[in-house]
Structure formats: structure tokens, C-alpha cells
Amino acid sequence: MGPNGPAPPGCGQKTARTSLRTLTIGKLWSAVRASPGGFLTGSAATKVTAHRPSLVYGFFPLRMPNPTALKFAWPRSRIAETACWTVQLRPKQPTLGSLVVVCKEPVTAFSAISGRAFAELAEVTQGVERLLAAFTGYERINWLMLMMVDPDVHFHVIPRYAGTREHAGLSFPDAGWPNPPALAEAVSLSDAQLEALSAELSAHWSGAAAR
Hints:
Layout: H1 25-33, H2 42-51, H3 53-59, H4 67-71, E1 78-81, E2 85-89, E3 92-93, E4 99-103, H5 115-135, E5 140-144, E6 154-160, E7 164-167, E8 170-173, E9 187-188, H6 191-210
Antiparallel strand pairs: 1-2, 2-4, 3-9, 4-6, 5-6, 7-8
Helix pairs in contact: 2-3, 5-6
């Protein structure tokens, strides 16, 4: 059962079976209900996935994260998550707040994602742009669907601005402005910096959704 009745169907994937001896479905529902908008974010997500990573995917019901999510440091980079999408901080930042939005479905074409994934993408898009407008103060925003190296359906989201943004003692210039983003000219975050900024953005996401 979900917070508002029966749990919705999954995104075309088989449920990942997992033991519930340590963390029950009821506790996981409580974590999701405590996260505004139904997104699994912040400390709730950290505790759930640190304790039993497959449970999030078994619960939603989805299989384990795909190679693209893992490449971009899931779950340490995660900001928010729905049944069909995960929002993650890029370990390499061409601009401050650059993200990846990864579809969890086992598809390699945008046209092949499920109707539910398309519906959720509207909410995810709004959440991402609300978050980055407040945090980065972008002047433009680029949603890039490249999929040349990583075939899973995903977007790179690059907030754009003239000049530089400063955060936590680091400078984040937009080297490509006003042309396409210079993805190769990026600030590489350490593991500690990645986790700290992801946690900060996750808190901003939850706070904005609650208002």
C-alpha cells in the first residue's frame, strides 16, 4: 500500500526482491511520506540506501541502478529520486549545480520510456529548475540528451551564467558562455565535496517542495 492507497505500478521493470528483516516497507513509506512531493531525499534517502541499497528499487518497484547512475556516483551524488528517475550531482561541474537526471528504466531511446516516466519527468523538470534557479541563479539552462558514451536515457542539466559563481571556497566559471557549455572545462569535486554539495542541494530541494 502507498501513502494514498495502493502503490502505483512500476516502470516496466521486475521488482527487485530483498529481505525486509532490517528495514520494513512501512518504515520506507514513512521516509517517503516525510519527503515533500513524494521524492526520496535528504537523510531519509541516505539512511535507506546506506543500510540496504536494493530496497529503494525493490520498493518502487525497480531493479538496481543502471550503469549511468552508478557512473555518476549514485547514491552519494543523489539529490532526489522518484519511481522512474534519479536526480544526481555531476562529480565534474562545468558550472555550479550541474546535474544528471537518469531514467531508471532499461531503455536506450527516449521514445521507449513508459508513460509513467514521461509523466514523472514533468515533476522532475519543475523540481530541477526551481532548485537551480534558487541555488545557482542561472541565466539560461541547458538540458542535454547526449547518450553517446552512456546509452541509458539521461539528461545533463547545465545551469548557465555569465562569469563565475563562488561556493564553499571554490570558483565555478561558465567557460563556455554564451556558447554551448564547455563540458571538458569542469571543476572536479572530491568525494567529500561531492557528498556535501549533494546533501546541500537535497535539503534545498526538500525545502522548496515544502513551500
